[in-house]
């Protein structure tokens, strides 16, 4: 972080200005006008840097999306060379060129701001001697002192200007984070309330719709009893995944109520409700450590029992609750997560 350089430059500039005022007030006023022009020109150039930095961040997101497309779709692209060419020519190449354009322009304006400040600071020395010798506002000794002070100011002032792009980049990143409307930071993890003796889970007039209002689910009225085995059946886009997300508490309904044993679940405490569930998603992620209830190490005997039941005993290498080989097929990963969910003793279990 280069904020200290910016603060240092401002403090030294103010202190030096006070010293120069003691030497010659008239020369300070002219020099101050010169410095205002210098700073104004620098900020005009830095504003262009900010514009390109903001656009650069958006372009960088598109470029990373292109990388992800190539990496995750490499098998499909290997089979379909026309699609590979289309992605390279129409997606990756334009995005890469746009990224190059904006990063070059941002660097160009940044260096122009530094050089502008450098030239104007050196020009201020010539201005000081002109005021002293031609206008007779001061003697040569005062002009020399002025010049040395301005040369002293040159380094912190240039450091302050050089620190601005870093601060602007941080501001762009901060503004982008604000768009996510993230929840406030909490220093401690919430401790969910336990529901060991639940009997029923009920959705009563539950409605959910996405932000673009293009798709909605509900009203849903559903009661699930302990020990039931349910299948969600429907065509693509019928709302199966959305319903599963609502049931597990990953999505919050816009209206309606979720009840556990007839008691509404507190909307402000979703962790209490989510603790009841384990899930195996279609895009499953495999963690390398097995956990049991309350975040404690999983029961080795229970894990071994489930691995044997799922015929995964010889597929996973375990050492003190840690998986040593994570390179498994998608089906094997789902089987592993099934065993992990059983080890965690979840009350509800979802598999996609």
TrEMBL record:
InterPro entries in UniProt: AAA+_ATPase, ABC1_TM_dom, ABC1_TM_sf, ABC_transporter-like_ATP-bd, P-loop_NTPase, Type_1_exporter
Domain of life where this protein originates: Bacteria
Signal peptide: none
One Pfam family linked to the record: ABC_tran
Domain ABC transmembrane type-1: 1-169
GO CC annotation terms, alphabetical: plasma membrane
Topology in membrane: Multi-pass membrane protein
Annotated transmembrane regions: 27-47, 109-131, 151-174
Subcellular location(s) of the protein: Cell membrane
Keywords attached to this entry: ATP-binding, Membrane, Nucleotide-binding, Transmembrane, Transmembrane helix
UniProt GO MF annotations: ABC-type transporter activity; ATP binding; ATP hydrolysis activity
PANTHER family registered for this protein in UniProt: ATP-BINDING CASSETTE SUB-FAMILY B (PTHR24221), ATP-BINDING CASSETTE SUB-FAMILY B MEMBER 6 (PTHR24221:SF654)
Name assigned to this protein: Multidrug transporter membrane component/ATP-binding component
């Amino acid at each position: 972080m280069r904020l200290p350089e910016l603060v240092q430059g401002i403090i030294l500039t103010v202190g030096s200005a006070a010293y120069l005022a003691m030497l010659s007030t008239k020369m300070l006023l002219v020099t101050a006008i010169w410095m205002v022009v210098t700073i104004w020109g620098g900020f005009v150039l830095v504003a262009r840097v900010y514009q390109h930095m903001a656009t650069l961040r958006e372009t960088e997101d598109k470029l990373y999306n292109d990388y992800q497309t190539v990496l995750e779709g490499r098998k499909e692209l290997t089979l379909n060379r026309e699609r590979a060419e289309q992605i390279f020519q129409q997606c990756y190449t334009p995005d890469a060129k746009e990224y190059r354009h904006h990063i070059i322009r941002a660097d160009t304006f940044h260096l122009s701001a530094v050089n502008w400040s450098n030239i104007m600071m050196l020009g201020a020395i010539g201005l000081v001697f002109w005021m002293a010798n031609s206008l007779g506002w001061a003697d040569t000794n005062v002009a020399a002192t002025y010049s040395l002070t301005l040369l002293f100011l040159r380094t912190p002032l240039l450091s302050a200007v050089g620190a601005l792009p870093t601060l602007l980049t941080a501001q762009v990143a901060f503004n982008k984070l604000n768009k996510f409307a993230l929840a406030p930071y909490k220093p401690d993890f919430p401790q969910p309330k336990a529901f060991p003796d639940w009997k029923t889970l009920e959705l009563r007039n539950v409605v959910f719709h996405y932000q673009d209002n293009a798709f909605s689910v509900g009203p849903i009225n559903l009661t699930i009893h302990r020990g039931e085995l349910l299948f969600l059946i429907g065509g693509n886009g019928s709302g199966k995944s959305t319903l599963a997300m609502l049931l597990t508490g990953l999505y919050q309904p816009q209206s309606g109520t979720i009840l556990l044993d007839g008691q509404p679940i507190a909307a402000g405490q979703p962790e209490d409700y989510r603790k009841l569930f384990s899930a195996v998603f279609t895009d499953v992620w495999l963690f390398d450590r097995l956990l049991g209830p309350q975040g404690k190490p999983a029961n080795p005997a229970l894990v071994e029992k489930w691995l044997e039941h799922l015929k995964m005993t010889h597929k996973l290498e375990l050492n003190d609750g840690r998986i040593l080989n994570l390179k498994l097929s998608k089906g094997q990963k789902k089987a592993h997560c099934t065993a992990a969910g059983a080890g965690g003793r979840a009350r509800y279990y979802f598999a996609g």
